[in-house]
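Students often ask why we bother encoding 3D structure as a string. The short answer is that it lets us treat folding as translation between two languages. Here is a chain of 621 residues written in the first language.
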Amino acid sequence: MPHIARLLSALLILAAAGASGCRHAVREQRVLDPASRRVTASGAVAGYVGAYGSHAWLGIPFAKPPVGALRWRAPQPAEAWTGTREALNFGSACTQFPSPIGGLDTARRGQPVGSEDCLYLNVYAPRVAESEVPTGSARWPVMVWIHGGGNSVGTGALYNGGNLAATHKVVVVTINYRIGPFGWFRHASLRGEGTNEFDRSGNFAILDIIRSLQWVRDNVGAFGGDPGNVTIFGESAGANNVYMLLLAPRAHGLFHRAISESGSVNMNTIAEAEHFTDDGEPGRTNSSNEVLVQLLIKDRRAADRAAARKLLAAMSAKDVEGYLRGKTNFEILLAYMPTPTNGMIDMPKVFSDGVVLPQDDPMQHFTRADGYNRVPVIVGTNREENKLFLFGDPRRVRRLFWLVPRLRDEASYSLSAEYMSRFWKAAGADEPAAAMRTTQDNVFVYRFDWHEEPRVMGADLSMMLGAAHGFEIPFVFGHFDLGRQANVIFSHDNEPGRLALSKEMMSYWAEFAYGGAPGRGRDGQQPDWLAWDNRAPADPKFVILDTPADGGVRMTSSGTQTTAGVLAAVDTDPRLPTQRDKCMIFHDLVNRSRTFTKQDYPTAGKSGCAGYPFDAYPWGG
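And here it is in the second language, the structure alphabet:
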């Protein structure tokens, strides 16, 4: 029983925020292969033959280490080296709290891990000798993966691009980028002499990703990749970053297709990033000034918040900067409180700074031909995104013997999951797609529906988790070996269907990378994935990605969503007979959305939810 309980616990943890399906459980013999020698602009590298038969090169620096004076500065190109660099090991993960979803050691839960010296990438390419690397028009498409993890945990090392590279002759690049308070931090004291507009933006993570794309432009040809055909793709926070790159002027021309898997277009304002939470225009939890308060109290330089604010007001900008830069990376991170289950941080991230990213509504940019980096796009979500998060909610799921899950109320669990996932589909896929479709033809949308997990210890995982957040990633990478514990979701019984679906998804993703449209896949034998059609509600909108046993891959117009439509549906749903039931859904939407907020909750729907205060919602009855 303890063994099975650990399996179920590992399932929840390992799948969250995009780690699902990409842990390097497949054993690789990382033996230097002389045939893998390639010469980049910074120097020669040599890698090894990976588990799927591709060549792999790990831990290649794409920027100078952002340490010392380069902390909270825009990234700079990496320095050159002499000789041949043995690229057999991943570079350090960026500073973060440990968690299984980040793939890092959890033995010291709550204690920081990683390094500020973390701007490294990994390359997977078809295996050929150095003399046989293709050139010119024979070069392979490039696919750059941007990992998820709430922009506060994760690493590119979790994702094995070898199968995708070897099967479809593409070059897959997985990257690190600064996360948490090192990737997203704005404060007036850091905008002094010697800084430029990018240093002052606070969007260091986006700038890191752009720097990695500049590296790809300048170096991927050495690996057989085509710098004129680069696809960016990412999941969750990584997909949010894909949307941001579509909006970032500095990224123009560095990529030529984009795929957003379960993303969003959320940004924080400058006020949210910097202000105190009780200012007239309030900052968010863990804004830069609130973090400074916490640091001063932790250092016993101030007894409480009021004293810390007074001390800050008396400090010069130079003194504040010196104080911040004098802190170690771990001391800074420990000013934040991680979420116990996943190590993520609640803090402002992705700033509408007016330099790296626009200050106004991103959706308006998507309706203008000159408003964004207009390239072919695939966007999509999973049918039951939020079941992953509900599965960890003790108000919804009880644990026998503290671990084995049982639903408290299956009906309310399913309803909450349905509405939250519909809202995610609206805000993260359908509405951006409809907006972009007004200015371009190549906009493709999917919904991932696979839900064939087994029963374990009487728990029906296909119902409890289904097509949950992050579960599409192993299908895209063709890498299902998550290790002994997490493999509980991949059984012998569901193997034929998931391998067939994975083959189709890998083929669609690769065909999109080759030509800018998924079409019928690389072999031309799959159902035709048509572009989103804005002409009429009944015209094709998106493809459903599922196994043959559940209807297979197919186009549909049924199930398109808008945020307004989802909110309106709550009032007319006969499965929600009471106002308390309706407010449960509105409460859930606040918790999983940045566009429907706590301020909207009291007046939500026709009757509002003031009678069920948000912070005291009666979950028990």
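Translate back mentally: The mean pLDDT is 92. Keep this in mind for the problem set.
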